[in-house]
Design a protein that fits this description.
Length: 329
């Protein structure tokens, strides 16, 4: 078995690599070539935390994977990682468990890549301003992906804890030393979205972050932070104003996306207003953006076959580069 840590994965795998793999995985799913059982969530109520177990299989690459992710928000108070995970990769031909790798970084990468693919198909081609609401671990991958598909000139950062926004600003300057754009920390979410062509929602908020009526015409929103039925980053006004609401998977969105579930339960909105899944747009079954002025909203809660897809890709790269540690049982 090959053991791959975060440092090794970072050296092997770029956001561009990840976006290509994620788009390909969405195609495989639409072709019926993936198997993804419902993920299992084990709550840790005393810590207001949970551990997720997510299995999947992808036939064209012939690998299955099991990702285990723990999300412990209180860790941040002690300087520990909030999100920690591993992926076990299994050969679909022999059943051998061929790799065990850090999943924290890969989760950030594939979640960002999912939004990046959606941005590619749904955001305006001339999008220049990106607002980021919620500057935790996931936000960095989101920004990387958006910058991979659009020429962003200005980034607006909003976080309820101002210091975290300032910290992300420093990380971005370090990550993109040659980028000529500007970064502004905003103290008001409505002000941040007012001028934004792309809005990234990457918080764990249980209440909407902004008033949907503040959205600019032609804006595109990526909502990835709320992944449970009670969590909500966008309000019903955002849903009303969106000409196209696209999800990563219909099943996952209607089971876990509080952004959609809360207004449905309140009788303010209905699931028939969902335009479709991102895989339908990728495969050409449905159109992406068709009007400059329309507002588009991509809601993702995550799906396990994306993890298996990126894990097997990293594994193949590790074999080719002869890196990683070998562990024999």
């Amino acid at each position: 078995m090959l053991l791959l840590n975060e440092r090794t994965i970072r050296n092997l795998y770029t956001m561009e690599d990840c976006m290509a793999d994620v788009e390909k995985a969405f195609r495989y799913e639409k072709e019926g070539k993936t198997v993804t059982p419902v993920r299992l969530s084990v709550p840790h109520e005393k810590e207001q935390a949970e551990t997720l177990y997510m299995p999947s299989y992808i036939e064209p690459v012939n690998y299955s994977g099991l990702k285990v992710v723990s999300i412990f928000p209180n860790n941040a108070k002690e300087g520990r990682k909030v999100l920690q995970g591993i992926i076990l990769l299994t050969d679909g031909l022999t059943g051998e468990h061929v790799a065990l790798m850090d999943a924290s970084y890969l989760t950030i990468m594939r979640t960002g890549a999912s939004s990046g693919v959606a941005t590619k198909y749904l955001a305006r081609e001339n999008a220049k301003v990106c607002a980021v609401l919620g500057t935790g671990a996931q936000s960095l991958g989101q920004i990387q992906a958006v910058m991979a598909v659009r020429e962003i000139e200005h980034i607006l950062l909003f976080n309820r804890t101002l210091e975290k926004a300032e910290g992300l600003k420093e990380k971005l300057h370090a990550l993109f030393p040659n980028w000529k754009g500007t970064i502004t920390v905003q103290q008001d979410a409505n002000a941040a979205v007012k001028d934004a062509d792309i809005v990234i929602c990457s918080s764990k908020s249980s209440t909407p972050l902004f008033d949907g009526r503040s959205l600019k015409r032609g804006a595109h929103i990526n909502g990835i932070g709320s992944y449970q039925s009670h969590m909500q980053e966008v309000d019903v006004q955002t849903l009303y104003k969106s000409g196209k609401i696209v999800v990563d998977t219909m099943e996952g969105a209607l089971h876990e996306a509080g952004d959609l579930i809360v207004p449905i339960e309140q009788g303010l909105w209905n699931a028939q207003s969902i335009y479709g899944e991102i895989s339908e747009i990728i495969t050409g079954q449905k159109e992406g953006r068709t009007e400059q002025e329309e507002i588009t909203f991509y809601k993702a809660v995550g799906i396990a076959y994306l993890d298996t897809m990126v894990a097997q890709s990293v594994y193949q790269r590790a074999l080719a580069a002869d890196v990683g540690e070998t562990f024999n049982f």
